[in-house]
From TrEMBL, chains A, B:
Keyword terms, alphabetized: Cobalamin biosynthesis, Isomerase
Top-rank taxon: Bacteria
Pathway this chain belongs to: Cofactor biosynthesis; adenosylcobalamin biosynthesis
Annotated Gene3D superfamilies: Cobalamin biosynthesis CobH/CbiC, precorrin-8X methylmutase
A Pfam family recorded for this sequence: CbiC
Entry annotated with the keyword Transmembrane helix: no
Name this polypeptide is given: Precorrin-8X methylmutase
Protein source organism: Diplocloster modestus
Record-stated family: Belongs to the CobH/CbiC family.
Isomerase recorded as keyword: yes
Domain Cobalamin biosynthesis precorrin-8X methylmutase CobH/CbiC span(s) in chain numbering: 10-204
Length: 206, 206
């Protein structure tokens, strides 16, 4: 059996060429690297239809990264997938508070999700973050509330949880907030999609 | 805005009910929990068509888990997503050799991928594993070669890399080997899908 060249960089380059060919449509040039990387990560072209960007979301994210912003994510899978080395080059780091003992304890005590408490923990740190939400719709709901209350000022919210219950609704709810966002409308998304969007933004800064 | 109950267990239960309703077809009862969990992880029903199981693949995997098999994966995202606690309950652990210095060094020296060298490292450990391949087609290609040479005896190969170059072909190549497999035919898959299949199998053992 014949396999094409195994050089990872050439494979990635060829993959993006195939995506470009099959997309067959004009995308906003500044959004395009994000959309293409999500398709590269999922082999799912439906993201070209469902990814929604608030006005100048990408420009604002790039500026934040170049200013050393850190990223808060709601899954350790997301954290594992984000290029921490590239982010560190700009002075940022990736946080995931989901497994923190204080978060777990407070979530249990109040009968809310750890994802919601994680967002409160981020709000308490007195620092503006990019949020990369790939799993928990409750993280988006709590973020919207904290934004409305003026207790948190995200530089960007990546809202791409996946699922069948509350997920599509939580994304719409977040998009009504006064915050820059990149959201995958509907049910689809995931930690891998969250990490892909972060990495697309990071690679645009290099 | 109204959101349904936030209890994570109830949300998961309701999600699986929705998947069951929308699937509208009869699946093999032993394969069904695997297929449903992949759909739960991706919100992508096309996996009901593309997931391929070798004869008694699930039964063999469950027996291996119950006998304390360990899992080798080709991504740290996959490792982050697999329920290591459940696996540890049976005596197994999750390995990812991709970032190991010896693997990186040898890959560079020989001009092959770290994924391919990772498979050789697993073969050298004198232990039978479940392989969960969510990223690198070269891992599947090298596994097929090692299986053909009798140097490795996987208890199961989960073959779900995602991508546009060599990916669909590498999956077909692996399926021709004499090995139990669960493969997502075509381009789709990913670390999240690999972890979801592992977790579905683990939860069937509990």
């Amino acid at each position: 059996m014949h396999f094409d060249t195994m050089d990872p960089q050439k494979i990635e380059q060829r993959s993006f060429e195939i995506i470009e060919q099959e997309l067959k449509r004009d995308l906003d040039p500044i959004q395009k690297p994000v959309i293409k990387r999500v398709i590269h990560t999922t082999a799912d072209f439906s993201y070209a239809d469902t990814l929604c960007f608030s006005d100048q979301a990408v420009e604002k994210a790039l500026a934040a990264i170049q200013n050393g912003v850190s990223i808060v994510t709601d899954t350790n899978m997301g954290k594992a997938g984000i290029s921490k080395q590239t982010l560190a080059g700009f002075g940022g780091q990736v946080h995931c508070f989901m497994a923190d003992e204080d978060v777990a304890g407070e979530a249990k005590r109040r009968g809310v999700t750890r994802a919601a408490v994680s967002m409160e923990k981020a709000a308490g740190l007195g620092e503006d973050f990019i949020f990369a939400i790939g799993n928990a719709p409750t993280a988006l709901i709590r973020l919207r509330e904290l934004i409305d209350e003026g207790r948190i000022h995200p530089r960007l919210v990546i809202g791409v949880p996946v699922g069948f219950v509350n997920v599509a609704e939580a994304k719409e709810y977040l998009m009504e907030a006064d915050v820059p966002y990149i959201v995958a409308r509907g049910r689809k998304g995931g930690s891998n999609v969250a990490a892909a969007i972060c990495n697309a933004l990071l690679y645009m800064c290099v």
